[in-house]
Amino acid sequence: MRKHLRLVALLIPMVLIASNSYAAVKAGSTCSKAGSKSVSGGKTYTCVKSGKKLVWDKGVLLPAAQPSPSASASADPVIVQVSDGDSCEKMGVQAKDSKGLLECRKFAGNKLQYIRISNDFSPVVNPTSPDSLTLCQLADKRTLIPESMKNYIPLSIAYPPKPFWNFGKATGTFKVVVAGVDFSDTPGKGSPSDLWKQDLLKAGQWMDWYTNGKVKLNFVTYDEWLRAPKPSSSYDAGNNDPRGASDVQSGGLTAQQISDDYIHTIEKTADLTDATSIWVYLPENIMTPFGAFQPGSASVQSAKYGLVKSQLVLTSADIYLSNRIRWAYFLHEMIHGFGLQGHSSKFIPTGGFLNKNGMMSNADGWTQALLPWDSIVWGVATPSDTYCIDKQHLDSVDLKLVPLEREQQGLRSAIVRINDHQALIVESHRSDKWGAGEGTGFAGTMVTLVDTTQSTDFENESSPRNPCLSSTGVYLRVADGNHGVHQPIGTPLMRNGQNYNGVTMYNGQSIAGDQDGWDLNHIMYPGDSISAAGIKVTLVKGGDNDVVRIEVVDKSLSEYQQPIMSAQCLAKFVPISQSSSAH
User: Fold this and answer.
1) Distance in angstroms between the alpha carbons of the first and the last residue of the chain
2) Secondary structure of residue 61 in the 3-state scheme
3) From the CA atom positions of the chain, what is the Rg in Å?
4) With b meaning 16 or more CB within 10 Å and e meaning fewer, what string describes 177-208?
5) Which of 7, 53, 76, 417, by CA, is between 20 and 30 Å from 457?
6) Domain residue ranges of the chain, discontinuous segments joined by +
7) How far apart are alpha carbons 21 and 87 in whole angstroms?
8) Which pLDDT score is estimated for 8?
9) pLDDT above 90 coverage of the chain, percent
């Protein structure tokens, strides 16, 4: 979460009721409003009149999304007299020799050298995981939590996820209503579908890949601007304003009054029956509302639909000003609704910056990948993409990993279970379809220490070096790696002659946190190693994929020793039993 945009979904009291499921649209099945549209199965369906009935038509195929050009691809390679292993000057520069393609990448010691690549992304084959995936689904073992987090305990830091009461389940098919709302002082221009057309396509592709098809979103869209009853300034809400139903927001309305107005505006046109989430697009030229607004449940009483319990997520002036990746923002908030806390792993204790790596960090950092531990917590990981082994069963194993940002079949992570609350997670990264990483030519491996006795803290945007910061997952460092710190890969996003909130633009996409300067020793390059709890992880070979060696170097160690927290920090923690929503 960058400071100007809070990404934690509002948690409402957890009333346990089951949510209705929503089936995917089929041609010829009945619908409720002529002209409404639904995106399902790669087609856009329109509700039309057939005789005396309203039915979904045959649908129109969506245009295939053009894959982002590989960020590791530079200009046409030049044929030069270089060999694999020769030194080079700029990461990402490509060259050819008689055997094929070479690319300049980083190696141990922060050296730049040419490495052979083939861009062959066929499925990767590995040894069979010796232990069941369930062994790596560590349970939540927390006894203390930061006092600031006591209202967020329903969100899961370990398997199983605890979906919001209005979601009811964490996987399956979910109806998402998408509508445009404008204001008398800021009327919408053109069709709101121009804003969301590509967003919905990307959101559907992302969900299908990272959940292994276990979560489907059925988008039902309405292409006309719907007019809110009050001027835009009435709905203003600061990014960090409290979001309790009775909390008065910046525009003078309570959070509940804002939800009431939006839902009553949308229900005049949209069919809200069984809608899990409602995504609202406001006009691009708005100046208010400024802050993001995303109650976990609208909780609006409707004469037409009864209690509308759908999640409500809206764009804002800030989202447009920062060129936010809107589809990722909407998905981030919805995934919170599926029960994930996210916002882990972090770079602590060396700097404490909120990690901008992954969909559930802040969704518009240097990658939008679903991190392996989030996949485990959500329950969407599979044995084919996760290598799970207990430390007691491990001697040494070499594994070839698929980069998290790439759509390639194979292992996305290797997990070594240390004990009932700790595990090491090994993951590979590249600049590819779902993330820019460190820019052109970026490639490397990262190692997370997960400890489910530790609670992830959201309260770090304003104090990135907070000594009391805690996190379930922490990225480990290469000892004496000499990798330096991250340098911005994008150009500053300018608004009114100033850089807007530290955001940069890279290949047409905004990157939050690009100017944080986090420690690059969290990334292993070929030849680097990271050790913890008697386990050593070495990046043996790079190229198209990373080959890692995971080996036990000390069988006697059965615990990763966490740093001792000061008494001053512990005073800010409370027993988890004191949480207002503890399960």
Assistant:
1) 26
2) strand
3) 24
4) bbbbbbbeebebeeebbebbbebbbbbbbbbb
5) 417
6) 37-64+165-337, 133-145+362-488+517-578
7) 57
8) 38
9) 72
Distance CA 323, CA 321 (A): 6
Q: pLDDT by residue (tens digit) across 379-414?
A: 999 999 999 999 999 999 999 999 999 999 999 999
Residue keyed to tokens 């949209």: 270
Quote the tokens at residue 47: 């509700």
Distance CA 480, CA 185 (A): 58
> In the numeric block, which tokens belong to residue 206?
């992302």
| Cα–Cα distance, 34 to 14 (Å, whole number) | 36
CA distances (Å), origin 44, targets 17, 25, 63, 269: 32, 10, 10, 18
Would you state the pLDDT for residue 168?
A: 95
Amino acid at 314: L
Rounded to whole angstroms, the maximal C-alpha distance in the chain is 76
Instruction: Tell me, letter by letter, the H, E, C secondary structure of 227-244.
Output: ECCCCHHHHCCCCCCCCC
Calculate the average pLDDT of the chain.
88
Q: What pLDDT was estimated at residue 165?
A: 95
**pLDDT of 4:** 38
Q: In what order do the strands lie in the sheet with 535-541?
A: 396-401, 546-552, 535-541, 529-532
Neighbours of 317 (CB within 10 A): 21
In angstroms, the CA 544 to CA 123 distance is: 12
Return the sign of the alpha-carbon dihedral for residues 139, 142, 146, 151. positive
> What pLDDT, on the 0 to 100 scale, is given for residue 70?
45
3-state secondary structure at position 295: coil
Q: Quote the tokens at residue 525.
A: 């390059």
* Pairing label, strands 100-107, 78-79: unpaired
**Below-50 pLDDT ranges, the chain:** 1-23, 64-73, 461-463, 580-583
The reported pLDDT for the residue numbered 71 is: 41
In sequence order, the β-bridge partners of residue 509 are 506
278 near 174, Cβ under 8 Å? no
